């Protein structure tokens, strides 16, 4: 039959976008219908997401998507960054703006939680690495607030957007796994964990899985977006990283690692079952859920956030000349630990990077180009360490590294990653999360088969670039020593 159009709403920490995927017989075309900035807002002492601005961007995007698709969308899917959520009162109204995961409200909270529930037991039950922003710690931080007391429902960000679009509530599984309240072995809530710290998992609406129906666009949404109804909303892997991993263009049987590089770098492996070892916990590996019962065994690395924050400080200069200048600098030179949670909070990033270099007795970068080079060398090293550690901890060797997400557009980062890892890098697609979102919808609508088929369609239709490792191994080994936190 004729090509069918699916819309992906993909909300990243740096921008939101609505993408249209047109699937024909063996073809897949992706177009950007609308992109809008995602600008956090500090009000009072709290850092918030501007969720209504994001929702307005979603509506604008769906209208543009409908125009791009000739008024007819087969379905809509929604994914976003993980862990964050909105609280609803008894009338189903949003109680305040969702708090940003970089807000400081969780400072000191994990230590309090571990006093009742030791970190090793928490890991054995949930497989989720320690990060102060995990939903679990956010909820403990909110304990005793009037807002939480009034809350009758908790909706993760993509589920909140889906609720506003359809009037229906659910909790999508892959994103639920990032709350640190889910058992990755059963795919159900880790009830004893939640009970022991006084969190009521009944706040979450029932779980739903990628591919499940999630309602249809409400009449006023159709009117506002000028779409012809009915338009179903399909549950996708609503954690953006889960959607991105679903769109890694690996060949069937290929032994691969992936790095999803955007605001964060998420580097690791796709496994059949969780690895809940103490060694993995100490190495900060997480077991998030993927599509089809897979496990995303990965480490969070600060990612291009380091560069985004520097650019903001420098008054947002153009990226391409800066990357060209950084590429001309010999390296790896000074490096920092790009997985250090010390870089989580916003502000003063060039200074913080310079300070980290001095603390480890390396020359501090002086110019924006030198700082950019330091960041990209440091990210390449953090990628290498995560890829090596994941293989060892999971007993799962790889032959190739797939780099997806916005960072796949950064040729210098991809080349440095190949050199540091000593493995070929296949870069692309840059819009992996949107593509994974679209393909899961297409599959639910019977247009495509299993995961291998999704991936081979991507490998045939998307623009990919291969980087062979080169350069001086000894120089990278020496730099790896300098990047270690002390
Ligand atoms: P998120 O989903 O977390 O908002 P993205 O996957 O959209 O992030 O990636 C955004 C990052 O991609 C930017 O911070 C930038 O560093 C990088 N990027 C985007 N476009 C380009 C480009 N043309 N050249 C180099 N890097 C790019
Ligand atoms: C990337 C991401 C990542 C999470 C972080 C909060 O966008 O979803 O996987 O750890 O945001």
UniProtKB/TrEMBL annotation:
State if Transmembrane helix is listed as a keyword.
no
EC primary class = transferase
Origin, by domain of life? Bacteria
Q: Which UniProt keywords apply?
A: ATP-binding, Disulfide bond, Kinase, Nucleotide-binding, Rhamnose metabolism, Transferase
Task: Establish whether keyword Lyase is in the entry.
Answer: no
In this chain the Carbohydrate kinase FGGY C-terminal domain maps to 257-444
According to the UniProt entry, its GO molecular function terms are: transferase activity
Q: Ranges for the Carbohydrate kinase FGGY N-terminal domain?
A: 8-245
* Record EC number: 2.7.1.-
* InterPro entries in UniProt: ATPase_NBD, FGGY_C, FGGY_N, Rhamnulokinase
**Record-stated family:** Belongs to the FGGY kinase family.
State what protein this is by name. Rhamnulokinase family protein
Which species is listed as the source? Streptomyces kurssanovii
């Amino acid at each position: 039959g004729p090509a069918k159009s699916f819309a992906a709403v993909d909300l990243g920490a740096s921008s939101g976008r609505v993408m249209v995927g047109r699937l024909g017989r063996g073809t897949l075309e992706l177009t950007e219908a609308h992109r809008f900035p995602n600008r956090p807002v500090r009000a009072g002492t709290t850092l918030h997401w501007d969720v209504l601005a994001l929702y307005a961007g979603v509506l604008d995007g769906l209208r543009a998507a409908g125009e791009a698709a000739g008024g007819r969308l087969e379905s809509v899917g929604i994914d976003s960054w993980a862990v964050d959520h909105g609280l609803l009162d008894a009338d189903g109204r949003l109680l305040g703006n969702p708090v940003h995961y970089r807000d400081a409200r969780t400072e000191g909270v994990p230590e309090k939680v571990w006093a009742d529930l030791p970190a090793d037991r928490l890991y054995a039950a949930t497989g989720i690495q320690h990060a102060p922003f995990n939903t679990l710690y956010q909820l403990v931080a909110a304990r005793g607030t009037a807002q939480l007391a009034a809350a009758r429902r908790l909706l993760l960000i993509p589920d909140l957007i889906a609720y506003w679009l359809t009037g229906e509530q659910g909790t999508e599984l892959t994103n639920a796994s990032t709350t640190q309240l889910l058992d990755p072995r059963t795919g159900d809530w880790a009830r004893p964990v939640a009970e022991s710290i006084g969190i009521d998992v009944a706040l979450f609406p029932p779980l739903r899985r990628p591919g499940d129906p999630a309602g249809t666009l409400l009449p006023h949404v159709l009117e506002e977006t000028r779409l012809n109804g009915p338009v179903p909303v399909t549950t996708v892997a609503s954690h953006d990283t889960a959607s991105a991993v679903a769109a890694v263009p690996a060949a069937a049987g290929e032994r691969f690692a992936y790095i999803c590089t955007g605001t964060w770098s998420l580097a690791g492996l796709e496994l059949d079952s969780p690895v809940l070892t103490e060694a993995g916990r100490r190495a900060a590996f997480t077991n998030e859920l993927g599509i089809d019962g897979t496990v995303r065994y990965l480490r969070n690395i600060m990612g291009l956030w380091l560069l985004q924050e520097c650019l903001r400080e420098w008054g947002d200069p153009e990226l391409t000349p800066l990357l060209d200048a950084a590429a001309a600098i010999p390296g790896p030179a000074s490096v920092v630990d790009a997985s250090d949670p010390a870089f989580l909070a916003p502000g003063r990033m060039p200074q913080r990077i310079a300070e980290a270099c001095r603390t480890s007795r390396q020359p501090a970068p002086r110019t924006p180009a030198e700082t950019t080079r330091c960041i990209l060398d440091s990210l390449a090293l953090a990628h290498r360490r995560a890829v090596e550690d994941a293989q060892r901890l999971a007993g799962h060797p790889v032959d190739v590294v797939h780099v997806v997400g916005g960072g796949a557009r950064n040729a210098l980062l991809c080349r440095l990653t190949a050199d540091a890892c000593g493995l070929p890098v296949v870069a692309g697609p840059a819009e992996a999360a949107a593509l994974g979102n679209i393909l899961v919808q297409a599959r639910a609508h019977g247009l495509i088969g299993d995961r291998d088929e999704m991936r081979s369609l991507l490998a045939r239709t998307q623009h990919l670039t291969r980087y062979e490792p080169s350069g001086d191994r000894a120089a990278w080994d020496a730099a790896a020593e300098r990047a270690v936190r002390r």
